[in-house]
Amino acid sequence: MTPGPATEDDLNDLPAGWKGQIAEGAMFAFPRPAAPHIEAASALTGLLLPPFRFGQGGPGGWVILAEPEVRFGTNLLIPDLAGWRRERFSSPDQGPYTVRPDWICELLSPSTARFDRIKKLRIYAAHEVSHAWILDPILTTLEVYRLQNAHWLLTSTYEGDAKVRAEPFEAVEIDLGLIWTRGGPTTWDFVAEEHATYGAQNAP
After folding, report:
1. Residue 173 maps to which CATH number?
2. Do residues 64 and 86 lie in contact, with contact meaning Cβ atoms separated by under 8 Å?
3. Cα 149 to Cα 152: distance, rounded to the nearest angstrom
4. Is residue 25 a part of any domain in this protein?
5. How many beta carbons lie within 10 A of that of residue 137, not counting itself?
6. I need a labelling partner for 114 at 20 to 30 A (CA). Which of 96, 107, 122, 143 fits?
7. CA angle at 100 for the pair 96 and 103, rounded to the nearest 5°
8. What are 47-105's pLDDT values in tens digits?
9. Is residue 7, in this structure, part of any structural domain at all?
10. Which helix (H) or strand (E) holds 65?
């Protein structure tokens, strides 16, 4: 984390291979995710797009994007995945998306878990994102949340190779076993906590 208030110009100064976001007035930057994170995100995207974006074996009606920059008031966040009901979706001519998503999914990694669970979920709730998923590719777990009375309600949890119908995509069964990287935790390029955020050691 860098001292606030941060601006979008600060994001341009990050070294190659780092991804920056602005949350609650400060910039947070993390190294690009390792293989299990990338592979799980790609697999989940591949499972959701045919039925929910293209209507192949499912209801359609969604636009689902990987790592879109989205503006939430003064915050600039990058959900790992975000989905909009098609009637609400608006594509910007340039710059970040400004219409809040209806669903977000964050995939946890050692360097981002605290940021994803606390700051980002708090901002998503404040801006009325109605559904959130938290995926952990190492523990192979899925947590499903619904926004209720401005707070996140945990509606269900799944693990391993469960076959799930998880809101807001309960119309189609998803096999979680198709998402996880096989080979165990040794495939993960672990990032030490003390080096997880850019400039953290030098922050006053």
Report:
1. 3.90.1570.10
2. no
3. 8
4. no
5. 26
6. 96
7. 115
8. 999 999 999 999 999 999 999 999 999 999 999 999 999 999 999 999 999 999 999 99
9. no
10. strand 62-66
